[in-house]
């Protein structure tokens, strides 16, 4: 596979703070990679540096075979970027907003309208962007990032303001985009989101990538015990679930049994701790 992103020893500082501290990362073409981390871990700074929005203090970032910095105009039609904070042209309707983005990339208005439908905003097409709810604005921001059919998509906490239905619909949309051959990189605080969507996840903390592997590999490496909850709420914790379930089957006690293995959230907490972050 060809690398869509190659990051080597990337560092970004703000005064005494090393927001990105010697990060090396490869994302293969067509991969779906999730970047996880507590607040202040450096996820957004890392993405913005790879996108060419920030100049790194040291190290390099190559995107689709081209250097990300200085800001490279040849990359702009090939990447889609949805920032953590949405920013729109004032006093435009949702339709005018996405038509404007489409026109910048030479995309027909009809294609832009299709994207409004794909993110469920047809009924809000004539509403001004300042009158959209937080979730609606987030969906419009995602549509604007995808309207030109980019090869590589960066999404910074795309589902943060979405309700459960919109969140699941966006998962389907991102899966379709990835399965069509597009590379997707997203940051998220939702562990289930990363576990379901991502081929690999990178866990960041204090500006560094602690691990980068498939969700299944990270969960196996944690070696967390399995919790078996019986119908009467009795809980059995075991590292030999097959044998325990066989014993329960022989005793006729499998009805209503719930089995919980380790999760990506367990991995995350094991790596980054449980203390509150600002």
UniProtKB/TrEMBL annotation:
It is a peripheral membrane protein. Residues 5-231 form the ABC transporter domain. It comes from Nocardioides mangrovi. The keyword Cytoplasm does not apply. Gene3D superfamilies: P-loop containing nucleotide triphosphate hydrolases. Belongs to the ABC transporter superfamily. InterPro entries: AAA+_ATPase, ABC_transporter-like_ATP-bd, ABC_transporter-like_CS, ABC_transporter_ATP-binding, P-loop_NTPase. One of its GO terms (molecular function) is ATP binding. Transmembrane segments: none annotated. This is ABC transporter ATP-binding protein. It is found in: Cell membrane. Pfam families: ABC_tran (PF00005). Keywords: Antibiotic resistance, ATP-binding, Nucleotide-binding, Transport. Coiled coil: none annotated.
């Amino acid at each position: 596979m060809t690398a869509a992103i190659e990051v080597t020893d990337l560092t970004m500082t703000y005064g005494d703070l090393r927001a990105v501290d010697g990060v090396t990362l490869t994302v293969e073409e067509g991969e779906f990679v999730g970047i996880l981390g507590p607040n202040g871990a450096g996820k957004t700074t890392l993405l913005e540096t790879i996108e060419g929005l920030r100049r790194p203090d040291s190290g390099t970032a190559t995107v689709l075979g081209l250097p990300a910095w200085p800001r490279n105009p040849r990359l702009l039609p090939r990447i889609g970027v949805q920032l953590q904070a949405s920013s729109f042209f004032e006093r435009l309707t949702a339709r005018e907003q996405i038509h404007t983005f489409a026109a910048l990339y030479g995309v027909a208005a009809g294609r832009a309208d299709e994207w409004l439908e794909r993110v469920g905003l047809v009924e809000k097409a004539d509403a001004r962007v300042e009158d959209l709810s937080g979730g609606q604005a987030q969906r419009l921001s995602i549509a604007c990032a995808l309207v030109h059919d980019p090869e590589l998509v960066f999404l910074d906490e795309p589902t943060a303001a979405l309700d459960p239905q919109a969140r699941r619909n966006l998962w389907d949309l991102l899966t379709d985009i990835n399965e069509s051959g597009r590379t997707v990189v997203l940051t998220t605080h939702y562990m289930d989101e990363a576990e379901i969507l991502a081929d690999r996840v990178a866990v960041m903390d204090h500006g560094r990538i602690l691990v980068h592997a498939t969700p299944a590999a990270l969960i196996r490496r944690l070696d967390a015990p399995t919790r078996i909850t019986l119908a009467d709420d009795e809980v059995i914790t075991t590292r030999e679930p097959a044998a325990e379930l066989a014993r329960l089957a022989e005793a006729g006690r499998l009805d209503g049994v719930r089995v919980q293995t380790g999760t990506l959230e367990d991995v995350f907490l094991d790596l980054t701790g449980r203390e509150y972050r600002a």
